[in-house]
Amino acid sequence: MIDPEFDEYEAFVKGMEAKFPEMFASPYGGFAVGKGWLPILEKLCDNIQSHIDWKNEQYHKYNRGEPVTQVTVAQIKEKFGGLRFYYDGGDEQIYGMVRMAESWASVVCEECGSVGKSRGGGGEWIRTLCDIHYKQPDQ
Q: Which residues pair with 88 in a beta bridge?
């Protein structure tokens, strides 16, 4: 039986790799997060690449500023109920973008993208979930 959620996830991953080939050029650990965080990751990658392209154009075209090293993703996962985006390259602004996305994800349900909060602990797996997905896990 084909799992439509798996197909949706695979389509997202392939789309991200196609849209950001330099960012996902090296072998990386995939997207180990719930579908509720995928829009955050898509916007983060879009903002990162736009910043790199703009800064490097300014540097090469007008000899302004410093070039920015291309970001390459190492791993994207959930850990202790929070988003973790591990990467190489970039600059301080990209560091801030990543911290902001990780912070944003801490209040977004991993399952559906609605408002969520950290749930669990005390021997339970910590996840960021809305009230509905906390009461009805694995749906």
A: 72
Distance, CA of 16 to CA of 23 (rounded, Å): 9
Specify the amino acid at residue 78. E
Please provide the DSSP assignment of 29-68 as one string.
--EES-GGGHHHHHHHHHHHHHHHHHHHHHHHHH--S---
The reply to whether the predicted model has a pTM over 0.85 is yes
Single-letter amino acid, residue 136: Q
pLDDT tens digits for range 49-75: 999 999 999 999 988 889 999 999 999
Q: CA 52 to CA 39: how far, in whole Å?
A: 20
Q: How far apart are CA 113 and CA 38, in angstroms?
A: 9
CA 43, 49, 52, 55 torsion: positive or negative?
negative
Q: How far apart are CA 118 and CA 98, in angstroms?
A: 19
113: left (phi over 0), alpha (psi -120 to 50) or beta: left
- Cα dihedral 30, 18, 113, 125, rounded to 10, equals 0
